């Protein structure tokens, strides 16, 4: 069983940066696809970025240039660096993981709140 724990959220101002962390246990993060999603109030959950087991990454087109996903194998942790934050980035950010070849993300963290004030 895979456990995912997010951290790093908080209240920031427009233009600030935050780095979210997703610490995995039960499996090595490098054997999974680990992604970030977010859900704003009243909106559906949306994909942010994924770090695949192979080392390839993919990010939502609308967030490229501001958000960067990375992985530290030694710490079994996947990060989401968020720069130039905007009020519309306010959401609960979730870390999720799936086994290789699966389409559905099977494991989810509890989420971390990010609030960007104007």
Order of helices and strands: EEEEEEEEEEE
Runs in which pLDDT lies below 50 for 5 or more consecutive residues are none
Beta-strand residue fraction: over 45%
Radius of gyration: 13 Å
Q: What average pLDDT do the residues reach? A: 95
Terminal CA distance: 40 Å
Number of helices: 0
Number of strands: 11
Class per helix and strand makeup: mainly beta
Shape: globular
Helix fraction, binned, reads under 10%
Biggest sheet record = 7 strands, mixed
Description:
This protein has 118 residues and is mostly beta strands. The chain has strands at residues 3-7, 10-13, 18-25, 32-39, 46-51, 57-59, 67-72, 77-82, 91-99, 107-108, 112-117. The strands form two sheets. Strands 2, 4, 5, 6, 9, 10 and 11 form a seven-stranded mixed beta sheet that branches. A hairpin with a 4-residue loop joins strand 7 and strand 8 (77-82). It starts with a strand and ends with a strand.
Topology:
Elements: E1 3-7, E2 10-13, E3 18-25, E4 32-39, E5 46-51, E6 57-59, E7 67-72, E8 77-82, E9 91-99, E10 107-108, E11 112-117
Parallel strand pairs: 2-11
Antiparallel strand pairs: 1-3, 3-8, 4-5, 4-9, 5-6, 7-8, 9-10, 9-11
In short:
The protein is an all-beta fold and 118 residues long. The protein has strands at 3-7, 10-13, 18-25, 32-39, 46-51, 57-59, 67-72, 77-82, 91-99, 107-108, 112-117. Strand 5 and strand 6 (57-59) form a beta hairpin.
